[in-house]
Amino acid sequence: MQFRYFPGPRIVFAAVPLLFVSAFCQAATTPAPVPDSPQATREYVQTQLAIWKLRLDLMDWKVSLLFCHPSQLGPKKMGDVEWDQDAKTAVIRVMDPADYRLSPEDTRKDMEFTVLHGLIHLELASLPRNKRNAEREELAVSQLADALLRLDRGTK
Description:
By secondary structure, the protein is an alpha+beta fold. Helix content is about 55%, strand content about 15%.
C-alpha cells in the first residue's frame, strides 16, 4: 500500500493567506507601469516638478504648472517660465501631452526636461540678466538640465 499525503483543509486554508501576502508584497515592491494617457503624463510631470523643486532646494518658491496648447507658447517652443523673484512665485508653462507627436515615454522625458529647465532658471533668478547674455544663459540652463536628467536616469 502506498501512502499519499493529501493536505487537509486546514493546511490548504493556511497556505492561502501566505500566497496572498506573498503576492501583495511582490506587487508593492514592483513599480506600476505608467499608463500612456495624457492625464497620467500630466500627473507624472506634476510629481517630477515636486521632486526637482526639492532636489534644487526651491521649496520656498510657489511654482504652478500649466499645460498649454502649442499656439499659447509661440513658434518652436515647448514651454516657458515666468517668475516674480520678490514674491517667490513662478508659472511654468509646458505643451500639453495631448499635443505631443512623440511616444508617451519620450513625451514624459521632454516635459520633465522643460520643467527642470524652468526650475533652473529660478535657481539663477537672483543673477543679473541682460539681452547680451540671454542666449548663453539659455544654453547653460539647457546643458545643466540635460546633465541632471542624465545623472538621474543613469545614462551618459
